[in-house]
Write a structure and sequence with these properties.
single chain; mainly alpha; 2-methylcitrate dehydratase PrpD; 13 helices
Protein backbone atom coordinates (compact mmCIF):
# COMPACT_ATOMS: atom_id res chain seq x y z
CA UNK A 1 0.00 0.00 0.00
CA UNK A 2 1.53 3.28 -1.08
CA UNK A 3 1.34 6.30 1.19
CA UNK A 4 -0.63 8.93 -0.72
CA UNK A 5 -0.48 11.93 1.60
CA UNK A 6 1.26 13.41 4.60
CA UNK A 7 -2.16 14.00 6.13
CA UNK A 8 -2.75 10.25 5.92
CA UNK A 9 0.48 9.61 7.83
CA UNK A 10 -0.31 12.15 10.53
CA UNK A 11 -3.84 10.80 10.91
CA UNK A 12 -2.58 7.23 11.25
CA UNK A 13 -0.15 8.30 13.98
CA UNK A 14 -2.94 10.09 15.82
CA UNK A 15 -5.33 7.15 15.58
CA UNK A 16 -2.88 4.40 16.53
CA UNK A 17 -0.62 6.25 18.93
CA UNK A 18 2.38 4.82 17.06
CA UNK A 19 5.35 7.04 16.21
CA UNK A 20 5.34 8.31 12.66
CA UNK A 21 8.50 6.42 11.70
CA UNK A 22 6.84 3.13 12.65
CA UNK A 23 3.75 3.94 10.60
CA UNK A 24 6.04 4.46 7.60
CA UNK A 25 8.12 1.36 8.24
CA UNK A 26 5.09 -0.87 8.76
CA UNK A 27 3.53 0.39 5.55
CA UNK A 28 6.73 -0.47 3.70
CA UNK A 29 6.74 -3.95 5.24
CA UNK A 30 3.40 -4.66 3.58
CA UNK A 31 5.27 -5.05 0.29
CA UNK A 32 6.75 -8.19 1.83
CA UNK A 33 10.35 -7.64 0.73
CA UNK A 34 11.73 -7.49 4.28
CA UNK A 35 10.69 -8.19 7.82
CA UNK A 36 11.13 -5.49 10.45
CA UNK A 37 14.63 -6.60 11.38
CA UNK A 38 15.83 -6.69 7.78
CA UNK A 39 14.25 -3.33 7.03
CA UNK A 40 16.01 -1.72 9.97
CA UNK A 41 19.30 -3.30 8.90
CA UNK A 42 18.88 -1.85 5.40
CA UNK A 43 18.21 1.62 6.80
CA UNK A 44 21.19 1.36 9.15
CA UNK A 45 23.32 0.38 6.15
CA UNK A 46 22.26 3.57 4.36
CA UNK A 47 23.23 5.62 7.40
CA UNK A 48 26.64 3.97 7.64
CA UNK A 49 27.17 4.54 3.93
CA UNK A 50 26.44 8.26 4.38
CA UNK A 51 28.95 8.42 7.22
CA UNK A 52 31.53 6.49 5.19
CA UNK A 53 31.10 8.87 2.26
CA UNK A 54 31.83 11.75 4.61
CA UNK A 55 34.80 10.03 6.22
CA UNK A 56 36.35 9.12 2.86
CA UNK A 57 35.97 12.51 1.20
CA UNK A 58 39.16 13.27 -0.70
CA UNK A 59 40.05 16.99 -0.49
CA UNK A 60 42.43 16.71 -3.46
CA UNK A 61 39.98 15.29 -6.00
CA UNK A 62 38.57 17.37 -8.82
CA UNK A 63 35.79 16.22 -11.13
CA UNK A 64 36.54 15.27 -14.73
CA UNK A 65 35.08 18.56 -15.93
CA UNK A 66 37.20 20.57 -13.51
CA UNK A 67 34.07 22.33 -12.25
CA UNK A 68 33.86 20.64 -8.84
CA UNK A 69 36.22 19.67 -6.04
CA UNK A 70 38.13 20.92 -3.01
CA UNK A 71 35.39 23.28 -1.79
CA UNK A 72 34.35 20.95 1.03
CA UNK A 73 37.90 21.15 2.36
CA UNK A 74 37.91 24.95 2.05
CA UNK A 75 34.69 25.18 4.04
CA UNK A 76 36.01 22.79 6.67
CA UNK A 77 39.17 24.85 7.13
CA UNK A 78 37.14 28.01 7.53
CA UNK A 79 34.94 26.37 10.18
CA UNK A 80 37.90 24.94 12.07
CA UNK A 81 39.63 28.32 12.00
CA UNK A 82 36.58 30.05 13.48
CA UNK A 83 36.35 32.22 10.38
CA UNK A 84 32.59 31.80 9.90
CA UNK A 85 29.73 33.70 11.52
CA UNK A 86 27.28 30.78 11.48
CA UNK A 87 28.79 28.74 14.30
CA UNK A 88 30.18 25.24 14.40
CA UNK A 89 26.99 23.25 13.77
CA UNK A 90 25.81 25.17 10.72
CA UNK A 91 29.39 25.34 9.47
CA UNK A 92 29.58 21.56 9.62
CA UNK A 93 26.26 21.34 7.77
CA UNK A 94 27.62 23.46 4.94
CA UNK A 95 30.84 21.45 4.87
CA UNK A 96 29.06 18.10 4.66
CA UNK A 97 26.75 19.28 1.88
CA UNK A 98 29.73 20.35 -0.21
CA UNK A 99 31.61 17.13 0.50
CA UNK A 100 28.72 14.93 -0.57
CA UNK A 101 28.00 16.94 -3.70
CA UNK A 102 31.66 16.76 -4.68
CA UNK A 103 31.76 13.04 -3.94
CA UNK A 104 28.96 12.62 -6.46
CA UNK A 105 30.67 14.80 -9.08
CA UNK A 106 33.91 12.86 -8.62
CA UNK A 107 32.14 9.50 -9.04
CA UNK A 108 32.56 8.48 -5.41
CA UNK A 109 30.05 6.43 -3.43
CA UNK A 110 27.05 8.38 -2.14
CA UNK A 111 23.47 7.70 -1.06
CA UNK A 112 20.88 9.15 -3.45
CA UNK A 113 18.46 10.79 -1.03
CA UNK A 114 16.27 11.08 -2.97
CA UNK A 115 18.57 11.63 -5.99
CA UNK A 116 22.30 11.72 -6.68
CA UNK A 117 22.11 15.42 -7.47
CA UNK A 118 20.56 16.13 -4.06
CA UNK A 119 22.64 13.56 -2.17
CA UNK A 120 24.23 16.17 0.10
CA UNK A 121 21.16 17.56 1.83
CA UNK A 122 20.00 14.78 4.16
CA UNK A 123 23.47 13.65 5.36
CA UNK A 124 24.53 17.29 5.76
CA UNK A 125 21.73 17.71 8.27
CA UNK A 126 21.95 14.34 10.03
CA UNK A 127 25.73 13.82 10.32
CA UNK A 128 26.53 17.13 12.09
CA UNK A 129 23.46 16.65 14.31
CA UNK A 130 24.71 13.18 15.24
CA UNK A 131 28.17 14.54 16.05
CA UNK A 132 27.02 17.62 17.94
CA UNK A 133 23.91 16.42 19.78
CA UNK A 134 24.64 12.69 20.14
CA UNK A 135 21.33 10.97 19.39
CA UNK A 136 21.47 7.18 19.27
CA UNK A 137 21.95 5.39 15.98
CA UNK A 138 18.48 3.98 16.48
CA UNK A 139 17.05 7.50 16.54
CA UNK A 140 18.90 8.32 13.33
CA UNK A 141 17.41 5.24 11.68
CA UNK A 142 13.94 6.30 12.81
CA UNK A 143 14.53 9.77 11.34
CA UNK A 144 15.58 8.15 8.05
CA UNK A 145 12.25 6.31 7.96
CA UNK A 146 10.51 9.66 8.34
CA UNK A 147 12.55 11.10 5.48
CA UNK A 148 11.75 8.07 3.34
CA UNK A 149 8.02 8.26 4.01
CA UNK A 150 7.85 11.95 3.19
CA UNK A 151 9.97 11.33 0.10
CA UNK A 152 7.53 8.67 -1.08
CA UNK A 153 4.68 11.16 -0.92
CA UNK A 154 6.74 13.80 -2.72
CA UNK A 155 7.56 11.35 -5.51
CA UNK A 156 3.98 10.13 -5.79
CA UNK A 157 2.16 13.48 -5.68
CA UNK A 158 4.76 15.61 -7.47
CA UNK A 159 8.26 14.53 -8.54
CA UNK A 160 11.82 14.04 -7.33
CA UNK A 161 13.30 14.41 -10.83
CA UNK A 162 14.98 17.59 -12.03
CA UNK A 163 14.21 16.60 -15.62
CA UNK A 164 10.53 16.42 -14.75
CA UNK A 165 10.04 19.13 -12.14
CA UNK A 166 13.14 21.33 -11.99
CA UNK A 167 15.56 21.59 -9.10
CA UNK A 168 12.66 22.20 -6.71
CA UNK A 169 11.86 18.52 -7.26
CA UNK A 170 15.39 17.41 -6.33
CA UNK A 171 16.94 19.85 -3.85
CA UNK A 172 13.46 20.93 -2.76
CA UNK A 173 12.31 17.39 -2.03
CA UNK A 174 15.58 16.55 -0.26
CA UNK A 175 15.26 19.69 1.85
CA UNK A 176 11.66 18.88 2.77
CA UNK A 177 12.63 15.31 3.69
CA UNK A 178 15.54 16.52 5.80
CA UNK A 179 13.37 19.09 7.57
CA UNK A 180 10.87 16.40 8.58
CA UNK A 181 13.65 14.00 9.64
CA UNK A 182 15.41 16.62 11.75
CA UNK A 183 12.14 17.59 13.42
CA UNK A 184 11.56 13.93 14.26
CA UNK A 185 15.05 13.69 15.76
CA UNK A 186 14.34 16.70 17.93
CA UNK A 187 11.19 15.17 19.36
CA UNK A 188 8.71 17.08 17.23
CA UNK A 189 5.15 15.88 16.76
CA UNK A 190 3.91 14.43 13.46
CA UNK A 191 2.16 17.74 12.87
CA UNK A 192 5.45 19.58 13.33
CA UNK A 193 7.19 17.23 10.92
CA UNK A 194 4.50 17.95 8.34
CA UNK A 195 4.87 21.68 8.93
CA UNK A 196 8.65 21.52 8.58
CA UNK A 197 8.25 19.71 5.27
CA UNK A 198 5.80 22.34 4.02
CA UNK A 199 7.94 25.28 5.11
CA UNK A 200 11.06 23.85 3.50
CA UNK A 201 9.34 23.11 0.20
CA UNK A 202 7.52 26.44 0.05
CA UNK A 203 10.85 28.24 0.22
CA UNK A 204 12.19 26.69 -3.00
CA UNK A 205 9.09 26.54 -5.21
CA UNK A 206 10.04 27.39 -8.77
CA UNK A 207 13.72 26.53 -8.39
CA UNK A 208 14.94 25.64 -11.88
CA UNK A 209 17.29 22.89 -12.99
CA UNK A 210 19.99 24.56 -15.10
CA UNK A 211 23.19 22.47 -14.96
CA UNK A 212 26.18 23.91 -16.80
CA UNK A 213 27.20 21.53 -19.62
CA UNK A 214 24.40 19.23 -18.46
CA UNK A 215 26.57 18.04 -15.57
CA UNK A 216 25.29 17.66 -12.01
CA UNK A 217 27.91 20.07 -10.68
CA UNK A 218 27.22 23.78 -11.27
CA UNK A 219 25.10 25.05 -9.58
CA UNK A 220 23.98 21.71 -8.15
CA UNK A 221 26.70 21.09 -5.56
CA UNK A 222 26.25 24.44 -3.82
CA UNK A 223 22.48 24.16 -3.98
CA UNK A 224 22.86 21.17 -1.67
CA UNK A 225 24.22 23.64 0.89
CA UNK A 226 21.16 25.84 0.48
CA UNK A 227 18.84 22.85 0.75
CA UNK A 228 20.45 21.67 3.99
CA UNK A 229 20.37 25.10 5.63
CA UNK A 230 16.79 25.60 4.44
CA UNK A 231 15.81 22.31 6.09
CA UNK A 232 17.23 23.49 9.41
CA UNK A 233 15.42 26.83 9.34
CA UNK A 234 12.17 25.04 8.48
CA UNK A 235 12.62 22.66 11.41
CA UNK A 236 13.42 25.53 13.75
CA UNK A 237 10.21 27.33 12.79
CA UNK A 238 8.12 24.18 13.12
CA UNK A 239 9.60 23.38 16.54
CA UNK A 240 8.83 26.94 17.64
CA UNK A 241 5.15 26.34 16.90
CA UNK A 242 5.03 28.28 13.64
CA UNK A 243 2.57 26.75 11.20
CA UNK A 244 2.31 26.70 7.43
CA UNK A 245 -0.74 28.57 6.21
CA UNK A 246 -0.93 26.16 3.26
CA UNK A 247 -1.34 22.45 4.16
CA UNK A 248 1.68 20.33 3.33
CA UNK A 249 -0.05 18.14 0.74
CA UNK A 250 -1.24 21.24 -1.10
CA UNK A 251 2.33 22.56 -1.08
CA UNK A 252 3.52 19.28 -2.59
CA UNK A 253 0.79 19.37 -5.23
CA UNK A 254 1.77 22.95 -6.04
CA UNK A 255 5.38 21.90 -6.51
CA UNK A 256 4.21 19.30 -9.01
CA UNK A 257 2.09 21.84 -10.87
CA UNK A 258 4.90 24.40 -10.99
CA UNK A 259 7.27 21.74 -12.31
CA UNK A 260 4.90 20.93 -15.17
CA UNK A 261 4.72 24.62 -16.04
CA UNK A 262 8.48 25.05 -16.27
CA UNK A 263 9.79 25.22 -19.85
CA UNK A 264 12.03 22.39 -20.99
CA UNK A 265 15.09 24.68 -21.00
CA UNK A 266 14.79 24.92 -17.21
CA UNK A 267 14.43 21.19 -16.58
CA UNK A 268 17.91 19.65 -16.69
CA UNK A 269 18.52 20.16 -20.42
CA UNK A 270 21.40 22.58 -19.83
CA UNK A 271 19.79 25.03 -22.26
CA UNK A 272 18.58 27.77 -19.93
CA UNK A 273 19.26 29.55 -16.67
CA UNK A 274 22.88 29.60 -15.54
CA UNK A 275 23.78 27.05 -18.20
CA UNK A 276 22.87 29.64 -20.84
CA UNK A 277 24.95 32.43 -19.27
CA UNK A 278 28.07 33.51 -21.21
CA UNK A 279 30.38 31.86 -18.69
CA UNK A 280 28.19 28.77 -18.48
CA UNK A 281 28.29 28.36 -22.26
CA UNK A 282 32.06 28.91 -22.33
CA UNK A 283 32.58 26.28 -19.63
CA UNK A 284 30.37 23.83 -21.51
CA UNK A 285 32.25 24.47 -24.76
CA UNK A 286 35.60 23.90 -23.07
CA UNK A 287 34.38 20.67 -21.48
CA UNK A 288 32.95 19.25 -24.70
CA UNK A 289 36.10 20.13 -26.63
CA UNK A 290 38.17 18.39 -23.96
CA UNK A 291 35.93 15.32 -24.17
CA UNK A 292 36.09 15.33 -27.96
CA UNK A 293 39.88 15.41 -27.99
CA UNK A 294 40.05 12.65 -25.42
CA UNK A 295 37.82 10.49 -27.63
CA UNK A 296 39.71 11.30 -30.82
CA UNK A 297 36.89 13.36 -32.33
CA UNK A 298 36.62 16.94 -33.53
CA UNK A 299 33.77 19.37 -33.04
CA UNK A 300 32.74 21.56 -35.95
CA UNK A 301 31.54 24.97 -34.89
CA UNK A 302 28.39 26.09 -36.65
Amino acid sequence: MAIHSIAELVSAAQMTGKPLWQIIRDDDLLEGKYDAKESTAQMRHLWKTMCSASDHYNPTLVSKSGLSGKDGAKMQRAVEAGATIVGNFLGQVMTEALKMGENNACMRRIVAAPTAGSCGVLPAVLIPYFRCYHPTEEQIVEALYVAAGFGEVLALRASISGAEGGCQAEIGSASAMAAAALTALRGGTPEMMATACALALKSVLGLVCDPVAGLVEVPCVKRNVMGAVNAITASEMAMAGIESKIPVDEVIDTMGAVGRQLPACLRETGEGGLAASPTGRAQAKAFFEQESKANGHTIEQG
